[in-house]
Amino acid sequence: MVHPPPIETSAHNVDALRPRSQSVVRAGAICCALQVISMAASAAELIVGPGLRFQQPSEAATIAQSGDTVRIMPGTYYDCAVWRADDLTIEGSGESTRVTDRVCDGKAIFVIVGSNVRILNLTLARARHFEGHGAAIRAEGRDLSLNRLLIENNQDGIFAPGAMGGVLRIEQSIFRNNGAMPGSTPSAAVRVGALQALVIRNTVFEGGRGKGAVLSAAAWTGLEGCNIDAGAEMESATVTVEGALRAISNRIEAGAGPRGYRAAILALPPRIQQRLIVTGNRLEGHGQLLVNWSGQSMELSQNDVEPGSLVATMQGAWWYAARQWLRVAWNQMRVFARQFVQVLRTIRQDVTAA
Question: In this predicted model, what pLDDT tens digit does every residue of 249-268 receive, in sequence order?
Answer without folding.
Answer: 999 999 987 767 799 999 99
